[in-house]
Amino acid sequence: MPINNYTYTPETAADFFAELSAAMRLLPDIAGVYSAFNRVFRKCIDRNTEAVSATLCGAFAKTDYLLKEHKAARSMARDINDTRVRLRKRGDMTADTLRAHCLQDLENLCRFISLLYNTPVPDDLRRLLPQHTDAEKTDDNTAGRTELPDYIRMIVERWDDEYVYGHADEPCGHDPLKVCYADTPTPSGYNWAYLRNLLGEGTQLNLVRPHCKEDIIVPELIIYEPDYLIDISAVSRCFTNYAESPLVNLISRLRPQQSTEHTILGNFAGQLLDETVVSCRPESPQNIQPTTSTPKPYADSVKDFFKTHAVELLTVGIAPEFHKNAKAQQKNISQSISNDLPGMVSRFNPTEGMVEPSFFSEMLGLQGRMDYLQLDFRVLLEQKSGKGDFPYEGFVVPRHKEEHYVQLLLYMLLIRYNYRDIYEQNNRELHAFLLYSRYSSSLLGLGFAPDLVFRAIRLRNELAWSEMQYTREGTFRRVLDTLTPERMNMKNVSNTLWEQYQKRQIAETLAPIHSATPLEKAYYYRFLTFIANEHIMSKLGNKTKENSGFASTWHDSPEEKRLAGNIYDNLTLLYPDATTDGSIATVTLQFHENAAGDMSNFRVGDVVILYPYAPGSEPDARRTMVFRSSIEKIQADNISLRLRAVQSDSRVFVRYSGKLWAIEHDFIEASYGSLYRGMHSFLSAPKARRDLLLLQREPEVDDTVTALRGDYGEFNDMALRVKRAKELFLIIGPPGTGKTSFGMLNTVKEELAEPASSVLLLSYTNRAVDEICSKLKAEGIDFIRVGSTLNCAPEYRDNLLSERACRCDNITELRRQTAEARVYVGTTTAFNSHIALLSLRQFSLAVIDEASQILEPHLIGLLSAHCNGVPAIRKTVLIGDHKQLPAVVQQSPDVSRVTDKQLNDILLTDCRLSLFERLLRRYRNDESVTFMLCRQGRMHHDIALFPNQAFYAGMLTEVPLPHQVAGLPETADSDSGIDRILRSHRMAFIAADAPEDSPSDKVNQIEADMIAATVKRIHDMEGDNFRPAETVGVIVPYRNQIAAIRSALDGYGIPALRAITIDTVERYQGSQRRYIIYGFTVSKYYQLKFLSDNVFMDSDGSVVDRKLNVAMTRAKEHLLIFGNPRLLARNHTFSRLIEFAKEHGCYFEDRKLFLQC
């Protein structure tokens, strides 16, 4: 039997046919049959498109690609797509409808598999298939012709100068499609002919509001790659006085983000608008119109703003007239909301409105956030705190800027098209206003402008095309190498604004690129392309992970989302209710009684979207406005969210009485913006820093340093080496060696012993930052933490910068406190988002924990920050272990691989690798800048033996602590097989048979029962010493298996077992338990690829399985591993593990004996 650690043969046709046979045995459970059908179909298209370089978003694109590649007949293609649609919409179909189509869909799936693998359908399945006569076969493309829907999703097959040809996502009575795109002018003569330069084979288009002329489809709007949502603000920003181009967005993306007094005033004015709306209260609940408005006291508004914008206020000088201007805007806003708008629109009622509602329109390929929308969709406000168009005329009555009008128009377009039913119910009544709060007569009502909408949609399409082009290597170089201010001046303007400000700003942004060395350019462009690929995959999904990408929000069915842990649905509203008075900042929802909460992929602090939907229908975030929120608390029967924008009244939520609610993950695009800017800042970093990062010189070391200020015992050698290093040091911290407790903490203590020193402590996850905070607290070291409240453990929230701001009376006091603080702590994401702090504070040392989990672009912006040519971070210590889990990357190695020789020469071979690992390759044997911690204090010797030998070349030793050398009871007599194992072995491999029938490959009920029985026995053995958070933890690869184990545990009726942590290995990194149970779960050969997708060969020749390493090294006193030995033995590392267990007498095969309790 072949043993393979790197490549695995995916499922064969025989595997898929066998699963279809098993599915039919589930009858009469038709829902179960169709769930199995869908799993087979999705796996089949995913496996057969893994190696395709093109971006294929959604099942439609993948199916279409495969049918074309295998030259399927038109009738077959139609049948397969009909089945695909039914599989996607099975949740909305009755059981009778599914039963009626079951055999036909079985046949279509069999034909599809047969086509892809060029193999006949097995006889046992063929006997189940319906028999057809020749008369039943038809290629009639008009069969079932119906009225055209609001929009048609199509895939482009070919095109000419007048028409686009392709196929529709769902049957619409026209197949193939013939779409007129060049001869459909708007009243001003615009047409869609520009799309000719954007189209490609396989391009997806939305044909919006289509109508038919003699079998030719003529749409009102054509949306290019609609799954790639473009923010409306990004579209509007591209409408400048000098250009109307996607290049404006590119320059904006690279330009350093600088807060100014104007941007701060704009953010504050937005808060003042929200507060004004919230303050409008009716005299009584029965009163429709608000009659009173009691504005929030200005001082309270300032204090709230101070708390949430402390960094910006610290880094930007505020002029004395700031408060005068802000108070004037508050007055203008209040006048507009309380007096002017009610006079203009009789139906206006601010207490019946939503503040900052968000939306996702796959129809239009747009997303965004409005400032205010009335609940009936009749009144829309977009606020602008700055200047309108020139001339300003004393700032009394504004003139609109085109970019502002575009933004408002696209919001209007959304309501007209995406929410057409509501718009028509309102008799097309929509009052849209720009509120220029700097002006005394602030409100500017504007109507619809079709031609400007066309231009905006064109720009949206060109932006989407550009984003996809940037993922191709060479595109950034081709665009940016030759870009100049003169080329950007596409409208040939020559006014003062252009000559004295805009031209200079563009030139300053581009100058570092044009002056960079060839190596610097190569490095810069390669990582820009890497970020662009990560960016697009975060939206459209990737080929390495199922249910990935934000587009899965509408592509995946609710069942698929539940299995992936990506949705909470069937929620009911607990708070607020009809009796709730006042503004609403939090929402609490109750879980459905049958909810499988253990399968969820949600954590406290996660950013999410909340939206209502009708019972009996599919939850769909595209059909309604959504509330952006953060998870505040998750309990057994309910979940609480903190709203991003406080709402004025409970009616915002109570109006959805009788509806259910859903929660899904949000997508924060701004996080990618900081990465693009960080890479661009590298080109402006001091030359010495650039050369250091590009390995063009050696890091400086001061060998004259011979003494430490502190005494760190056995860590003195490490501390002295770190102190001698003037710029860079690497600490390798294998599991249990105390990389935070000793590596980080001793380094910090020695640095703080120097009088003028200051330290920045960073890590990738908030949990790791909490761990750092705990060490600082224990040592009595004061610190300021940067980040959000919900992502910070409660015991460290007083240290948050925002909380300190609350306790300061003014900016001067806060500036004094921040200047006196010597230690700052936070995630790399938090500091990348507040990079301005590094212009306010310079640090003599930065210690970066979890460095092996942090991609290079996440650190480059921080390491490139400088002030007057001096790096903001003078010395960096990176702590990590490249043999544990690496950074999460969406790209496959084929996409992230680096082929440029000059980059390979600086050891950059794959963008997936961390900066820590690249530097370690160079300096592994240089003791002046590298140190490895080798004494581990976590695992008992017997547990550490295998990972130490297999992954660390035997370099690890025990401290030893008492539990690491403790013996076991002399006798292991017990009626329970589990007890006998636990009392006689520190480590055990327990063989588990593969289940004969399972609802999913991701569920292994045999293992789940064995693991639950083991946890129960551990609970009984430990008695009063059992602590759910410390005693036992369970690690499995799939969320479906987590739910299966939890269900088995519930059968014991022991409350304490409900509180133990059962999670994936990715979530367990950094944790430890006295007992660790690791269940492999897998029962199919193809699943070995997922289990071993983090395997690499180290420079010492060892084959390191990072997942297995982390799973095994979480255990302190006992490690029990469950798996199918016959399957696992086909993997090199797992085979070694099984042989190790056999050689050491800790391999157990008798399941019946084992389950005796």
TrEMBL record:
Keyword Nucleus: no
UniProt xrefs under CDD domains: SF1_C_Upf1
InterPro entries per the UniProt record, alphabetical: DNA2/NAM7-like (IPR045055), DNA2/NAM7-like_C (IPR041679), DNA2/NAM7_AAA_11 (IPR041677), P-loop_NTPase (IPR027417), SF1_C_Upf1 (IPR047187)
Keyword set, alphabetical order: ATP-binding, Helicase, Hydrolase, Nucleotide-binding
Domain called DNA2/NAM7 helicase-like C-terminal: residue spans: 913-1125
Signal peptide boundaries: none
Gene3D superfamilies: P-loop containing nucleotide triphosphate hydrolases
Boundaries of every DNA2/NAM7 helicase helicase domain copy: 724-789, 824-890
One term of GO molecular function: helicase activity
PANTHER family per UniProt: DNA2/NAM7 HELICASE FAMILY, HELICASE SENATAXIN ISOFORM X1-RELATED
UniProt name for this protein: DNA helicase
